[in-house]
Specification:
The protein is of the alpha+beta class. The chain is built from nine helices and twelve strands.
């Protein structure tokens, strides 16, 4: 596998995550939850591969993980020679290369197809509604932009995280070998164990829809406006969100002509501009 990759034209440097053998390949938070338990460096892909090969027979190797590198930028020949016909060519593939690394349970706000190229990977998936049973870590101090589950899948502490038993009942497990692929739906939690001394995966992330701004902005706004209200007041706002946003009763504006729907109407660029300006004024106060 390494000979195949090293024989290709090399492009940009890639991100290499490293950590001492003590973490046993488990990428997670530090004990103080103020950052990750690994460091990131930039490296030439060839140098990263050579470092992996140097440790491939170590019984307790350091953690080495080249993550989410755009193939078109680091290995353009690979991207051109290995296409996934299921998806549009505009969806850029990324490559992940490492040793026996465990990526802790997390989710992505993207749809994903993950293709194992070398080694083996075990995926454990949880549907989004298992959120309360997965005990997420702090959302604003994350190793990769989204919170991680605090529960160690391989050795869960059920006294501290008792609801994790319910999450396990809903879990789906797939072990992939070279040539296997897995679809991970938008927002599904997934725990990924690389099981061989050398593992290569290519994945494809894409947006099924592109909101005008990040939905996380809405969540953060909710934290400062709704979370600390009295329960009966929050219930009123939950009802409004269900009606206008989640449309649990159907189209909330069907009884109004389009020109009478005001701020709740279609998200045209001009409408979005007005809403964004109003929010900016509100948050500036």
């Amino acid at each position: 596998m390494c000979d195949y990759l090293l024989g290709m034209r090399q492009g940009n440097v890639v991100s290499l995550a490293t950590a001492p053998p003590a973490i046993k390949g488990r990428l997670f938070y530090r004990e103080d939850l103020q950052g990750p338990n690994f460091e990131r460096h930039s490296t030439a892909l060839a140098s990263g591969l050579q470092t992996l090969l140097a440790h491939v027979d170590d019984p307790e190797p350091p953690t080495l993980y080249m993550e989410a590198a755009r193939l078109a930028e680091c290995l353009p020949d690979f991207a051109a020679s290995n296409r996934l016909e299921l998806l549009d060519d505009s969806i850029a593939p990324r490559i992940w290369i490492g040793n026996a690394v465990t990526v802790q349970t997390h989710y992505d706000f993207l749809s994903n197809i993950a293709c194992v190229v070398a080694g083996r990977r075990r995926f454990t998936l949880f549907p989004p509604e298992q959120l309360p049973n997965l005990y997420p870590g702090p959302p604003d101090m994350t190793p990769a932009g989204v919170p991680l589950s605090m529960v160690q899948l391989e050795n869960p502490d059920f006294r501290r995280y008792p609801r994790f038993k319910e999450a396990l009942e809903a879990a789906r497990v797939a072990e992939l070998e070279p040539g296997d692929a897995l679809f991970i739906p938008y927002g599904w939690w997934h725990h990924v164990q690389s099981l061989a001394p050398l593992n290569v995966l290519v994945n494809y992330w894409w947006f099924s829809s592109r909101p005008a701004t990040s939905p996380l902005d809405c969540l953060l706004h909710g934290l400062i406006t709704l979370r600390d209200m009295q329960p009966d007041e929050r219930a009123v706002w939950r009802n409004l969100f269900d009606y206008y946003i989640f449309q649990t009763s159907g189209d909330p504006l069907a009884h109004l002509a389009p020109n009478f729907r005001g701020v709740m109407g279609s998200n045209t660029p001009e409408q979005f501009k007005k809403i964004k300006a109003a929010l900016a004024r509100s948050l500036a106060q």
